[in-house]
Write a structure and sequence with these properties.
Blueprint lengths: L1 H5 L17 H11 L9 H19 L5 H16 L1
Length: 84
């Protein structure tokens, strides 16, 4: 919400140095971006399906319907089948 209100952004050029004490919102975004993973736009449909399946399995594991290990194995199998 803060980024939208302040029109904050992170410069694409990695050679730009921000004064992070003056830009607290951008400072947080920059820290998040350093550990982020880029997802190509042509993979968004698959990624969304993985997130949906992961959410279902997470809920099942949370209520004890399946173990967390089984949920992990099922999600890995789902991903393997999806990317083949």
């Amino acid at each position: 919400m803060g980024v939208i209100n302040t029109q904050g952004f992170i410069p694409v050029n990695s050679n730009v140095n921000l004064n992070l004490t003056l830009l607290p919102i951008e400072s947080v975004l920059l820290k998040q971006a350093q550990s982020s993973v880029t997802i190509p736009l042509n993979h968004l449909e698959k990624i969304n399906r993985i997130f949906q399946e992961g959410e279902i399995l997470y809920k099942k594991a949370s209520i004890g319907e399946i173990s967390s290990v089984k949920a992990e194995n099922q999600l890995n199998l789902f991903i393997d089948n999806l990317i083949q």
